[in-house]
Amino acid sequence: MKKSFLYYKTILIHTLAAILIGLIIGAVDALFGRVLLTITDFRQEHLYLLLPFLGPAGLLILFLYRKLSPKSLGGMGLIFDTGFQENKHIPKLLVPLIMLTTWITHLFGGSAGREGVAVQMGAAISHTIGRKLHVQNNARLYLLIGMAAGFAGLFQTPLAAVFFALEVLVAGSLFYEAVIPCLAASFTAGFTSHLLGLEKFSVIVSDKLVFTPDTIVKLIITAVIFGIIGGSFAWCLQAAKKRLASWFPNVYFRILITGICLSLLLLFIHQGRYTGLGTNLISAAFENQTIYPYDFLLKFGFTVITLAAGYQGGEVPPLFAIGCTAGILLGNLFGLPVALTAALGYAAVFGSATNTLLAPVIIGIEVFGPQNAVYFLIVCSIAYACNGNMTIYGRQRQYQGQEWQSRSSK
Amino acid sequence: MKKSFLYYKTILIHTLAAILIGLIIGAVDALFGRVLLTITDFRQEHLYLLLPFLGPAGLLILFLYRKLSPKSLGGMGLIFDTGFQENKHIPKLLVPLIMLTTWITHLFGGSAGREGVAVQMGAAISHTIGRKLHVQNNARLYLLIGMAAGFAGLFQTPLAAVFFALEVLVAGSLFYEAVIPCLAASFTAGFTSHLLGLEKFSVIVSDKLVFTPDTIVKLIITAVIFGIIGGSFAWCLQAAKKRLASWFPNVYFRILITGICLSLLLLFIHQGRYTGLGTNLISAAFENQTIYPYDFLLKFGFTVITLAAGYQGGEVPPLFAIGCTAGILLGNLFGLPVALTAALGYAAVFGSATNTLLAPVIIGIEVFGPQNAVYFLIVCSIAYACNGNMTIYGRQRQYQGQEWQSRSSK
Q1: What is the pLDDT of residues A243-277, one digit of tens each?
Q2: Which is it for the CA torsion A258, A264, A267, A269, positive or negative?
Q3: How crowded is residue B406: how many other Cβ atoms within 10 Å of its Cβ?
Q4: pLDDT > 50? residue A408
Q5: What ipTM, to 2 d.p.?
Q6: Mean pLDDT, to the nearest integer, of B325-337?
Q7: What backbone torsions phi and psi does residue A138 show, to the nearest 5 degrees?
Q8: pLDDT of residue A204
Q9: Coiled-coil ranges per the record (chains A, B) (predicted)?
Q10: With bands split at pLDDT 50, 70 and 90, how would you rate the model's confidence at B2?
Q11: What is the pLDDT of residue B126?
Q12: Which of A106, A239, A339, B397 would you call most buried, defined as having the most Cβ atoms within 10 angstroms of its Cβ?
């Protein structure tokens, strides 16, 4: 009974700390996100002036990291290692560096995400606060609190953020003890960034799907394809990094040449359609504007090359864009409700590329409304199983189901 | 690449086997469930004739088990041990015995569930088929397939059934590789039992909750209480078993005396209101009929004593009844939407007593419609965290989050 009391007292302390962390991270998310939106608008208006300088901008990004904090280049890998207690310190400069370099990436038209900033920044801030509290063995807990808050503040999907943090470190296991503090941090960060003017992306999908054997088979095939797309993205990203490194052993040379090639291609193929986060594609998908059948492939390719070259930002919003443009294509092909299929792709491709199952289901519910929860569960489960166990997070671990078989039952 | 191909080939074989298993288990579920409904109606009509014989009926149950297959008395514990590969054989007589003795329990008015039958029967049938297939190391997989199919066939909540099977053996870890075969088995079992005339319990809750700081605090308090109720149920059941065993070392004497006392109390307190599954209380809760403030406590007490004495059937439907009657009480007390609070209690008390998080959330979505998915997630997460880590499944294991920290990252 005593132990139990102590347990709940500890949870209470962590939860109060998590609310404070959520406030700070929500505010930083709002700052980062609003500047990023301004930058995106500015780029759209001055595309021909900015995009040609993507190569030199890459040099600047790399120079800043190498000069100021080479360790910070570890990025998400560094965060994962901290979670596994193989790294103790997250450099102080990681947060300003990742924010600044992501802004630069987007200003000059790289095709990249923004969740990398949110999650790394959240983890770094929360980790620092957790260390100051001197509560024993809490490194992993505070890391998860920070990741959840960072994700929630940026996307304003607090529940998906919690499950993303709980399941992303070790595929196939959930760190359930962190549920309450993570919920507190997530909701606080989401409210804070919302109050500070960051808006949530949300579309209500009113498509209805009739459950016939025919649609079930089509839905399963669609889900398998989403899984393959997500898995391939993770695989290609890894392969592209290796390939570029073998072609250009010099890192500066690598980012400069790749950046120049990228800027030419991005400019001449549909004039910047595939730059940035991909929110233009997502809007087009749900507002019945033109989606080309090859949109998902080009966004896929440009994002892989941008990130493999060394630009910053993350993968998630482009994955959303890839998923929903692929969904439009498959929905039309199979005669499934198009907006619903796009929404399912949005969630499922994200899940299969990050090797997570619950986060994408809940993202689906939080972004597209709960009325299709069952379809998100079915499609994301199948996609998850069909991703060939790939993940964009190279440092993610696999939970070995067999392991507990050797433990005694007491 | 070869390995990957083999992996998907294996999944395909398991999935085809799972569909066959789902068909068989769905049919058995329908048989069991429909007979149980007839028995329940028959008991309601002849309550004064049947209830007085609860004590002798207990003797018969015990006699059957002891005479025919004492090992089958292990029940859910036996299923869990098989999952952990500490038991290799599930007795052939387990299935007919658990079905028959659950019918007897309900015919004479014991307060018990029915999912024990479904899950044990499903696991036993699937385990036997899995062994015949001679695929290496698949004992656990086939056990989960069977548990999912059994649960899905009986309650016709196929997605909740999958997650229940995935998360119940080891609290805090999910056996994700089993997702696809379990989905196939679950949906097949659900469709089959539905075709054979078993109906799904479903209520659409149209209550709307306005998200104000006031309601958030009330919702959190309600969730904490649900968690305490579920945790206490698990604790009391264990304690009652020990207490009865120390009072009556002779098992026959134990079930006879306890049964006689139960039948007297069940008869005189509201004439049989607390007998059986508790579906009468659930209907009353959602059809605006009278719910007494003490309903949840009495159903709680009667169920604990019925099961501790040695009657069969399981805990889940009474837990649903306890949860939603407690929800009615708390909803009225706090001025929360009453039907919604009852629905949240239905899910959250089940989750906190079984130490599962995702299964109750998805039960909430499948039974009460997806529109309140977010509330089910919040309330079930908090209830899960506040159950004092108790569980009605004594053989359930805890996943130790620390364990993977010692593993190498490769």
Answers
A1: 999 999 999 999 999 999 999 999 999 999 999 99
A2: negative
A3: 8
A4: no
A5: 0.72
A6: 96
A7: -110, 10
A8: 86
A9: none
A10: very low
A11: 93
A12: A106
Cβ–Cβ of B174/A171 closer than 8 Å?
A: no
A365: chain B residues, CB-CB within 8 Å: 370, 373-374
For strand B397-398 and strand B170-171, is the pairing parallel, antiparallel, or unpaired? Answer: parallel
Whether residue B399 is predicted with pLDDT greater than 70 in this model: the reply is no
Mean pLDDT of the residues in chain B: 90
Decide if pLDDT at B61 tops 60: yes
Q: For chain B, say whether A378 makes contact (Cβ under 8 Å).
A: yes
Q: Does A140 touch chain B (CB under 8 A)?
A: yes
Question: What secondary structure letter does DSSP report for A360?
Answer: H
Q: Name the minimum distance, in Å, from the CA of B207 to any CA of chain A.
A: 15
CA dihedral (B85, B87, B89, B95) positive or negative: negative
Query: B203 and B343 in contact (C-beta within 8 Å)?
Result: yes
Q: Which two tokens stand for residue B217?
A: 């605090």
CA quadruple B78, B84, B87, B93: dihedral, nearest 10 = 40
Does position B3 have pLDDT exceeding 80, yes or no? no
Contacts of A286-294 with C-beta under 8 Å, sequence gap 24+, read A286/A203, A286/A324, A286/A339, A286/A342, A291/A325, A291/A328, A291/A329, A293/A329
- Six-digit token pair at A75? 């990025």
Please give the C-alpha separations between residue B400 and each of A8, A397, B199, B260, in angstroms, as whole numbers. 18, 15, 39, 43
DSSP state at residue A199:
P
Distances (CA, A) of A159 to A15, A131, A359: 16, 25, 8
Q: Residue A395 — pLDDT band, cuts 50, 70, 90?
A: confident
The answer to whether residue A5 neighbours chain B at the CB level (below 8 Å) is no
Question: How far from chain centre, in Å, is Cα B157?
Answer: 12
Q: Distances from the Cα of B43 to the Cαs of B300, B310, B387, in angstroms?
A: 21, 20, 34
Domains and their CATH numbers in chain B:
7-195 (1.10.3080.10), 213-385 (1.10.3080.10)
Tell me, what's the pLDDT at B406?
Answer: 29
Half-sphere exposure of A249 (CA within 13 A, CB side): 0
Interchain proximity B385–A11, CB inside 8 Å: yes
pLDDT tens digits, residue range A94-120? 999 999 999 999 999 999 999 999 999
Mutate which: A219, A377, A410, vs B, most B CBs within 10 A: A377
User: For residues A18 and A142, is the Cβ–Cβ distance under 8 A?
Assistant: no
Nearest CA in chain B to A396: B409
Q: Which residues of B touch A404 (CB under 8 A)?
A: 84, 170, 173, 397, 399
B5 touches chain A (CB under 8 A): no
Res A105: pLDDT: 97
Q: Does B174 touch chain A (CB under 8 A)?
A: yes
In a mutational test of the A interface, the residue from B11, B174, B232 whose CB has the highest number of chain A CBs within 10 Å is B174
Q: If you write DSSP's letter for every residue of A84-147 in order, what string do you get?
A: TTS-----TTHHHHHHHHHHHHHHTT----SHHHHHHHHHHHHHHHHHHHT-TT-HHHHHHHHH
